[in-house]
Amino acid sequence: VQLQASGGGLVPAGGSLRLACAVSGRTLGSYTVGWYRQAPGKQRELVARLESRGELYYIRSVKGRFTISKDNTKNTAYLQMNSLEPEDTALYYCNFPYSFVDWGQGTLVTVSS
Fold first, then answer.
1. Model confidence pLDDT, tens digit, residues 57-103
2. Predicted pLDDT of residue 21
3. 73: which of 24, 53, 54, 106 is 20 to 30 A away, CA to CA?
4. Cα–chain center distance at 85
5. What is the DSSP letter of 16?
6. Which residues contact 106 (CB under 8 A, 6 or more apart)?
7. What Rg do the C-alpha atoms of the chain give, in angstroms?
8. Distance between CA atoms of 32 and 107, rounded to whole angstroms?
């Protein structure tokens, strides 16, 4: 199974980005998928989770600003990030919370103040 995250970049505070995670080797629609992030000097944390049956979960700091979704026809998961804050700066990854695979390289999001 391979995960290819993309869409990161440098944006000013208040800006938006849409991350994509292309999945190969596993059928995305059958699994719960999550977006994680790791800020410098901090542990990796789960940011958002989309259960296989459709339930959504967000950490409090991103609720109302981030939206997780997926396109099963493209086998790709997305994270729409709006109203970005400098505290959102991190390396972002996708993975399967209940059946982890190799993390891949992630995609870097940098939010300037």
1. 999 999 999 999 999 999 999 999 999 999 999 999 999 999 999 99
2. 98
3. 106
4. 16
5. -
6. 5, 8, 38, 91, 92, 93
7. 13
8. 20
